[in-house]
C-alpha cells in the first residue's frame, strides 16, 4: 500500500507493522542521466519488492534530498547536512511507528547516505519505539556491485529499464568522454578528493555504455529478490532489546 495513493481510512485498515521508506538524492549524474536518479531507482526497487512480497507492506513516499555536497560544483545538486538528514529520516520513521508501522526498511539509492543511514537506524532501534535497518540496492546485486560508479553502467542500466525516457541517449558519448575510471583520487589507501569535480570532468564515474536495459532488468530482479528476503527477515525478527549483561 502506497501512502501517497491511499486514504487515511485505507491505511488505518492495513494489517501490517512493516513499512519501506525509499531515500535518494537530487544530484548530478552526468550529462545523460537525471538529477533524480538515486530517488527514482530507490523508489523502483522499493515498489518492486512491495509488489513481490507475499504479505502487506506500507510504502512511504521517497525522501528526495540527501547528503550530496560532494557534487556541489554541478548545477542543480541539492543537499542537506548529515545531521538534518538523520533527523528527517528518524522523525519520518517515528511518524510511521506512531501508526503501528514500527518495522521499517529504509531503501537507499545514494552512496553518500550509507553511513548516516547505518547510524540513524541504529539510533532508532536503540532509543525509539521502532526497529529500522537500511538497504542500499546497488550493494545487493551480486557481482554487478563491483561496477558501481556514478551515472555509470549500473545506474544507467536500471534507468534504461525502468524509465528509459529519462536517459539522454544522444549524450552517452559525451558522458563517456568526461568520465573518471574510478571514484576518487587515491594515495596510501586514502581518497584525497572530497568532491567529485576533483576527479571527474562531468561527474560521471564508469562507462554508461556498459549498462543496457537488459542489464537493468537483471539488476532490478536481483535487488528486488534481496529486498524481499530482507522484508521477510525483518517481519519475523525478535526485536526486543537484549538485557544488560
TrEMBL record:
Pfam families: Creatininase
InterPro entries named in the record: Creatininase-like_sf (IPR024087), Creatininase/forma_Hydrolase (IPR003785)
SUPFAM superfamilies the UniProt entry points to: Creatininase (SSF102215)
Metal-binding is among the record's keywords: yes
Species: Halogranum salarium B-1
Name of the protein in question: Creatininase
One MF annotation (Gene Ontology) recorded for this entry: metal ion binding
Entry cofactors: Zn(2+)
Gene Ontology biological process terms in this record: riboflavin biosynthetic process
Gene3D superfamilies: Creatininase
Key words, A-Z: Hydrolase, Metal-binding, Zinc
Record has Acetylation as a keyword: no
